[in-house]
Design a protein that fits this description.
Length: 543
């Protein structure tokens, strides 16, 4: 075995998005593509020599191949030890958990999260820093800068290592420890939630369907829900991680988790339904004939946090991404704690969490989390809901209805226009920005615009500024329309349009959201000329 230096040249387009670098599998399979990016990670990290690194992924196609490459490059770049999940498996929340528990230097996560998998699907890679969270922009920008000047990369010529047996190995001078991917995470969950109460809930005959969508959450859900919490076998469905997610689009929303929704809407519905995504950092909570919006879920968890052991002393603050509804703001006001509005991207919560400014955080794309790690955490949110159901004796539907009765309902929806021409999408957004100066004070179908801007965020901890984070139309009555381009896709562009309308009258809390939001949907289409720019008369996905 020996270490080799390979000549290479920059490859265009290796700019990390909000959640790392995501491309089609065949792009990562191209010569030197993965190697260039990984070497640029190591080149950008000061003081990594001799340090401990965590490595794992969601099990999608190309995961094992990429892990072997990264191990050989880590050894060649002076990493002292790598903790890698057995079989190459680690959920994104588990990576964050292990980094924090073992005080690692950082971690490399292999996932394209909720994007489809398989040979024709997507792949992704991102670096997490020592707090367990996604690298901040100053690091991702340094990595990207490195990809534009790279001339060589380093790798060992050692044979592949055995990833399927827990134990200690060596590669060149580097230690490798293959770890149980579930153990540390399960211990953390048991420290936060009342497992005895949840076990008693299942023992009482309570039923649940947890759809792991043939993704990485399966082993975690089997071990914790069916094992530690003694839920009946079969509670977790689609629980084996598959390289193509079994054909699922592993994004836990009512469209992609259609089987779960049909079950929960049917005559034989379980008492509680839940789903997770490709890398287990997202969640969907479902009652009977009710899919809880992520915005409402965050608000309900915050309002009831003191009922859960890990949060019994209360919360110090909440943060939500800008497009997420303002439901959490109302809870924060009632609790007398601050609510921060950040750009989309979990890394923006990291500084607030590290500074002790917030306890809970969430974003509208089915991501919820807390200060227990520095990633959103799908199974954590599901266990939180189970704990609330166990200690209150109430159903999902009753908890939601009572929350609306107390705080009002924020009717909310997101419309996605997927795989549209990137240039046309940018033209739409630029034209929209050009109209902002003339929109304030205008009345559109009876709605008066109070604020029309392009959201900019100044981090209250480090003072960094993030601009052009989404166009907002804020109306006098509190309604909102938000337009932004997503950074998580791999084909063309995805335009996301968010709609929100507040309703205080509890007699008007049970209407279909698309009907309540119809006027705002019409206004958005006309103001942005969505059909004219995208060619789409209707959204690709409505959630």
């Amino acid at each position: 075995m020996s270490i080799h230096v390979f000549k290479t040249a920059p490859i265009a387009g290796q700019q990390p998005g909000t959640s790392g670098l995501r491309k089609k599998v065949h792009v990562f399979q191209a010569p030197a593509y993965l190697e260039n990016f990984v070497q640029s990670i190591f080149n950008s990290l000061e003081g990594h020599t001799g340090q401990v690194l965590v490595l794992g992924g969601d099990g999608r196609f190309y995961n094992r191949t990429a892990i072997q490459t990264i191990l050989k490059m880590a050894a060649a770049n002076g990493i002292g030890k790598v903790l890698v999940g057995r079989g190459g498996i680690l959920s994104t929340p588990a990576v964050s958990c292990i980094i924090r528990k073992h005080r690692a230097f950082g971690g490399i996560v292999l996932s394209a999260s909720h994007n489809p998998g398989g040979p024709d699907g997507d792949f992704g890679i991102k670096f997490n820093i020592g707090n367990g969270g996604p690298a901040p922009e100053k690091i991702t920008e340094a990595i990207f800068a490195g990809t534009k000047t790279i001339s060589e990369y380093r790798a060992s010529d050692a044979p592949d290592v055995d990833l399927d047996r827990i134990g200690h190995l060596h590669l060149e001078g580097m230690q490798i420890e293959v770890v149980d991917p579930v153990a540390d995470y399960a211990d953390l969950m048991q420290s936060l939630f009342d497992f005895n109460a949840i076990r008693a809930l299942f023992a009482s005959g309570f039923t649940m369907r947890m759809d792991a969508m043939s993704a990485v959450c399966g082993p975690y859900a089997h071990h914790i829900i069916e094992g530690m919490l003694e839920a009946p076998s079969g509670t977790v469905v689609n629980g084996e991680p598959l390289e193509d997610f079994g054909g699922h689009h592993p994004d836990p929303n009512p469209v992609n988790a259609r089987q779960l929704i049909e079950h929960m809407d049917g005559a034989g519905a379980s008492d509680f339904g839940a789903a997770s995504d490709g890398d287990a950092d997202r969640n969907m909570i479902v009652g009977r004939n009710l899919a809880v919006t992520p915005s409402d879920s965050l608000a309900i968890l915050a309002a009831n946090a003191a009922l859960v052991p890990g949060y019994r002393d209360g919360i110090v603050g909440i943060a939500r991404s800008m497009p997420t509804s303002t439901a959490a703001d109302r809870v924060a006001k009632a609790l007398g704690v601050p609510c921060y509005e950040t750009p989309t991207g979990w890394k923006f919560f990291g500084n607030l969490l590290d500074a002790g400014k917030i306890t809970l955080c969430g974003e509208e794309s089915y991501g919820t989390g807390s200060n227990h790690i520095r990633e959103k955490d799908g199974l954590w949110a599901i266990l939180f809901w189970l704990n609330l159901l166990a200690v209150t004796g109430k159903s999902v539907n009753r908890l939601v209805a009572e929350h609306w009765a107390k705080y009002g309902r924020n009717y909310y929806s997101r419309h996605d226009y997927e795989a549209i021409n990137s240039a046309k999408a940018e033209t739409l957004m630029n034209e929209l920005r050009g109209k902002l100066g003339g929109l304030k004070g205008r009345k559109l179908d009876g709605y008066e615009i109070e604020v029309a801007d392009d959201f900019s965020y100044t981090d209250p901890i480090d003072g960094s500024i993030s601009e052009r984070q989404g166009v907002r139309l804020l109306f006098v009555d509190g309604s909102r329309i938000v337009f932004r381009l997503s950074g998580t896709g791999t084909e063309g562009a995805t335009l996301r349009v968010y709609f929100e309308k507040y309703e205080a009258n509890k007699g008007r809390h049970f209407f279909p959201p698309q009907i309540v939001l119809a006027d705002l949907i019409k206004i958005a289409g006309e103001v942005a000329n969505i059909q004219g720019h995208t060619g789409l008369a209707t959204p690709t996905v409505v959630t």
